[in-house]
Amino acid sequence: MDTQAGHSASDPRPVLEGPDIARVLTRIAHEIVERAKGADDVVLLGIPTRGVFLAQRLAAKLEQVTDRKVPVGSLDITMYRDDLRMHPPRALARTEIPGDGIDGKLVVLVDDVLFSGRTIRAALDALNDIGRPRAVQLAVLVDRGHRELPIRADYVGKNLPTSLRETVKVQLAEEDGRDTVLLGVKPADQ
Predict the structure, then answer these.
(1) Prior bond to 49 cis, omega within 30?
(2) CB burial of residue 163 (10 Å; 0-12, 13-18, 19+)
């Protein structure tokens, strides 16, 4: 036990704090503007829960950079998940598509952590039922590796190579009261 910090070696440790998260979102906003040659037809869709908050923050950063409002919404993927029968029922989140829709637009899906890729596959299926974007890109706060599907992020806040025994937990002020990304280790019995 580290008596100075009051934490043991197995306690989750922060790998990103509030200022780091703000900085990477600013960088991602600039990258989106550069790749999209502006943000005229960009629509941000956050994947609940924390992806929605990140999309809203990213939209605010994009507005600062471009002096234009960027449409932002949310995309519930619950009914598109391939593990529905393996987990207890969960409440549906909201899907909110901006008024101009997504047809012919550059849709940037926003999520907190990219892991196996299954969440993004479900998001692509959900998106397909809503409309036909010109292109779809992916922005994530953390890419922790371990892909099970051929999916990669276009914009990454932090690449964080992990073992399968490690956990990555994103906390955002809107949901958790603080901004941080924590890296921990699963207990041996899980």
Answers:
(1) yes
(2) exposed
Residue count of the chain:
190
CA distance 16 to 181: 5
Per-residue pLDDT of the chain (190 residues; tens, 9 = 90+): 343 445 555 689 999 999 999 999 999 999 999 999 887 999 999 999 999 999 999 999 999 999 999 999 999 999 998 876 677 666 778 899 999 999 999 999 999 999 999 999 999 999 999 999 999 999 999 999 999 999 999 999 999 999 999 999 999 999 999 999 999 998 876 5
Rg (CA), the chain: 17
Distance of CA 166 to the CA centre of its chain: 19
Q: Is 35 helix (H, G, I), strand (E, B) or coil?
A: helix
Is 0.85 surpassed by the pTM of this model? yes
